[in-house]
Design goal:
This protein is an alpha+beta fold and 187 residues long. It is built from 5 helices and 6 strands. The chain has 2 domains: 53 residues, no CATH class; 109 residues, no CATH class.
Length: 187
């Protein structure tokens, strides 16, 4: 029952702006709601007479906002230990030890970024290829390096783009909203 109701409300909010605004106001406790005074019977036409009733304080606890940047950083630490690698003093370690640690961290970081963003190159040509530059090239997609202007150039970097955004959702409390990784204690 509740699952069906949730889907129904989801689609109402998605496609009906006025309903979405009323639902938002109801959830924030800032509005009135029409409530039927009697339950309709199957044998007679529905004769509900709406009345206005003020909702009590918010129906649910306000969710804590957390920066998506912190959520991403937390995911990269949890899944690949990225912060441990970049925060560690590398002086006492040999290049071989650093490389071995970095290999695992970089592999796991790539997996996390692919899962969250679905990363792909903007241009699907190898670096060094001569490619055409569109006449309406967006500066967000194209950085033209060099003095000449023209319709062709040598690709020095294919660029990156996200094909999705599947950011983990924060569900903690306000006191923990700035925590990136929990302290680990072994007993």
């Amino acid at each position: 029952m509740r699952l069906f109701f949730a889907f129904r409300v989801f689609f109402i909010v998605l496609f009906r702006r006025d309903s979405a605004l009323r639902i938002r106001d109801l959830l924030n406790g800032n509005s009135t709601v029409l409530v039927p005074t009697e339950t309709p019977r199957l044998s007679t036409p529905a004769e509900s007479k709406p009345i206005t009733a003020k909702l009590p304080a918010p129906l649910r606890k306000e969710s804590v906002r957390r920066s998506e940047a912190l959520t991403l950083l937390s995911a990269l630490q949890r899944e690949s230990r990225l912060l441990d690698l970049v925060s560690e003093s590398l002086d006492p370690f040999s290049d071989a030890q650093i490389g071995a640690a970095a290999r695992d961290v970089l592999r796991d970081t790539r997996k996390s970024l692919d899962r969250i963003f679905g990363l792909q190159h903007l241009i699907h040509s190898p670096e060094g290829d001569v490619i055409e530059i569109p006449s309406d090239a967006s500066t967000a997609r194209w950085r033209i390096v060099g003095k000449e202007s023209g319709d062709r150039g040598t690709l020095s970097h294919p660029g990156w783009q996200a094909t999705k955004l599947d950011m983990p959702q924060w569900s903690g409390n306000a006191d923990d909203s700035m925590v990136i990784a929990a302290a680990e204690v072994e007993t």
